[in-house]
Design a protein that fits this description.
Layout: H1 8-33, H2 36-60, H3 68-83, E1 87-94, E2 97-104, H4 106-113, H5 121-136, E3 140-146, E4 155-161
Amino acid sequence: MELDDIPAELKWKIVTKTFQSFFSGYGTAFRQILDEKTVKNVEEIVWAERGKEVKKIADILKLPSENAIDVNNALKIVGTIIMGKSEYETQDAASELVIDHCTGCPNFNAHAEMYIPVISMPDLCQAYCTSAVESLNPKYTQMFTKRMCAGDDYCESIIGLKK
């Protein structure tokens, strides 16, 4: 078998699973040697840096990020590339505000598949998304009002103008 014999979809699935495992694995490893506060600080910094990469990838793909709809679309496209497919239902979309409900999350699913508790996932996801949105367009920010990893049925993400 040659690399070219492997379908692109399968390669993509393998890469995103490996990526998820890496981030979950380092958190587990750090918790064995460091206190929880230090681990959370390190993880948040790493995930915020990961969020900044979204802008770099969006620029390579020439994705627009002029308003909330553009930022949301760029975040979804790049997020799918680097983390895997999420399931979204847009509740409201206007140039200055987008509200999405995420009902399927690759990060949440990866933790469940590996039997790893979602200890700091809410904070990490927030660090990643805020960093990604603000790097795509500094006029905008992102916040969650509901989170599956905190027991809600879905994640509610709001992207809007900073106040």
